[in-house]
Amino acid sequence: MKNKQRKSSNKSALRRFNDWIHLWLGLISGIIVFIVSITGCIYVFQQDIKDAVEPWRFVEAQNTAFVPPSQLLDTAQLHMPGATATGLTYSNAEGAAAVGFSSMIDGKRSFTAVFMNPYTGEFLYKQQTIGEGTFDFFRFIIDGHRALWMPYEIGRPVVGVGTLIFVVLLITGLVMWWPKNTRKSSLRKSFKIKWNGSFKRVNYDLHNVLGFYSLLLALVLAITGLVYSFEWVGDGIYYLASGGEERPGHSHPHSNLDNMNMAVSDSIPLIDQAWYKTLEVQPTAAGWYMSPTLADDDDVYEVLAYLNDGSWYNQNVYYYDRYTLEPYRWPGDRFSEAGLADKLMMLNYDMHIGVALGLPGKILAFFISLICASLPITGFLVWWNKKKKPKKSDKPAASGNQNAKGKISRPKVVKSNAAIA
């Protein structure tokens, strides 16, 4: 006990405050950090798992062009009568096309995707992932990751605050980890796990050493997640990266309303013409996305071309006037031409789930998330082991002398004559 008091008194007031903050913030946020981290760990490979267990996502590659968007929309509408298409995607040469239908029914969101062969327009499968009476495993996982399975208006701020606390824990943890001296023995303890040590020692090293090695990438995952929880985080990153500029909100060009009464004489639907115009300047891509339904009179046709297979940040966006199909350019519509701040915003999601670096990035994100999930557990055990009182058998004898062999011999009691009497 005296040794512990002596070690504590040797620490500065700032260091003691740092340790106190790390302990209590860790105990408060532990369950949130664990759920967010373990669900993120599972979600990293969601696309790979879906590809392995959902055969309708693939078709046999053919040496022919894809059918136009209008044909896919007509086929999908047959299987979703009365619903409004909200998204249309083409994949790569071996991927199925899909039309998505997202809506709100009695205040609850519903989403269904209709998969089709992009070469023939043939129906393949209808899959509902959100809605009453449906269960989708990865939807369950992402709901836990984003909102702890609570209503989003409640759960998302809780996750945001928990993630913000986790960032503080990473910084205070680094202060606690920092070696007191540079002696080889001290450095070895800071950088290596003593696997042949006691359970307490191994647990301490798992928390201390793995926490250090995962620090930088854990910060990346946490900060990119905070962008979705708090606007001020994204605004701050953009401000710093751009040298003092404000982050623009989501914006796009608008169709010229002066042309809204123009008669369409061409028999080819305008959405197909927009598709063909895009193919003229962007003949190949790893994937495509279109907004097939234009809600407002000044909306434009929007075609996104994803240039890297399996990721979304490297994209070119093409806009067309809905009446004249005049092409429009817009700030940030090409990743390759964007400034640093805009590139960081485009990269945010891909960095958060690891796909920006392809398969190696996903593997790295998986293990970093797994380590982050372990930190609240190992940290709690470190605190609990320190909090427990020593067993009676561990306490030294209250009296007696210890000989060279470690045995305790009690002093002989000499009775006085008075006692005998």
From TrEMBL:
It comes from Roseivirga pacifica. This is Uncharacterized iron-regulated membrane protein. Keywords: Membrane, Transmembrane, Transmembrane helix. InterPro entries: PepSY-ass_TM. Pfam families: PepSY_TM. Signal peptide: none annotated. Residues 389-421 are annotated as: Disordered. The chain crosses the membrane at residues 21-45, 158-179, 210-230, 363-384.
